[in-house]
């Protein structure tokens, strides 16, 4: 099953979610299409979280504050996927807000092996996509971008290229562009 079949990431999406493909020019000069999904998320209006990564947007996910990456991760976990937020800023794999003691986790050996191959060829984790998911024999990378405020960076395109050359299929990659409702 490929990611493009997941048209609704609940409970965050209203009825007008859209799915398209985004063209990405790889360093080799080849252009590929990556699945892209638009999401509308609810802004958190509760108590301020302790560590907001210098002003990172906070989402209301089922009445709890989360960063957008963790909210999308939770949605996939509801669908039976395991995964992590790849916190490249602090070089950690997370499943919760940084202020929580249970935030940092290790990857399962099989997934860690795949990431290590990519890291070796990429000379580090730089540009890794925001969310790493796995379920059975499937692996997924999802990059979140805030509508009109963020775009894919050259390091992320380089990571994509290295992962593809390492045997990860392009269907394992997806972009999620989001904004508040």
Query: Which term fits the overall shape?
Result: globular
Note the run of SSEs as H and E.
Answer: EEEEHEEHEEHE
Helix content: 10-25%
How many domain units?
1
Q: Which structural class should the secondary elements be placed in? A: alpha+beta
Characterize the main sheet.
7 strands, mixed
Instruction: Provide the residue-averaged pLDDT.
Output: 89
Low-confidence stretches: 1-16
Tally the beta strands: 9
Amino- and carboxy-terminal Cα gap: 30 Å
Rg on CA atoms, Å: 16 Å
Proportion of strand residues: 25-35%
Helical stretch count? 3
**What strand order characterises the main sheet?**
1-2-9-8-7-5-6
Structure description:
The chain contains three helices and nine strands, in the order E-E-E-E-H-E-E-H-E-E-H-E. The protein is an alpha+beta fold and 181 residues long. It has one domain (3-180). The strands form two sheets. The chain has a seven-stranded mixed beta sheet, with helices on one face. Strand 1 (19-25) and strand 2 (31-41) form a beta hairpin. The longest helix is centred in the middle third of the chain and has 14 residues, at 109-122. The two termini are 30 Å apart. Mean pLDDT is 89; it is low at 1-16.
């Amino acid at each position: 099953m490929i990611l493009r079949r997941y048209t609704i990431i609940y409970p965050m999406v209203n009825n007008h979610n859209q799915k398209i493909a985004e063209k990405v020019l790889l360093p080799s000069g080849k252009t590929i299409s990556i699945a892209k999904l638009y999401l509308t998320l609810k802004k958190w209006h509760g108590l301020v979280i302790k560590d907001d990564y210098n002003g990172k947007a906070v989402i209301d996910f089922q009445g709890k504050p989360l960063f957008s990456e963790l909210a999308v991760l939770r949605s996939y976990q509801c669908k039976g996927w395991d995964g992590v937020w790849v916190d490249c800023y602090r070089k950690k794999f997370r499943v919760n807000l940084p202020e929580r003691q249970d935030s940092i986790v290790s990857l399962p050996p099989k997934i860690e092996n795949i990431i290590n191959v990519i890291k070796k060829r990429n000379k580090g984790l730089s540009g890794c996509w925001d969310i790493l998911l796995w379920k059975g024999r499937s692996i997924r990378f999802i990059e979140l971008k805030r509508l009109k405020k963020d775009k894919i960076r050259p390091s992320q395109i380089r990571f994509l290229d290295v992962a593809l050359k390492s045997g990860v299929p392009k269907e394992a990659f997806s972009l999620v562009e989001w904004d508040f409702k």
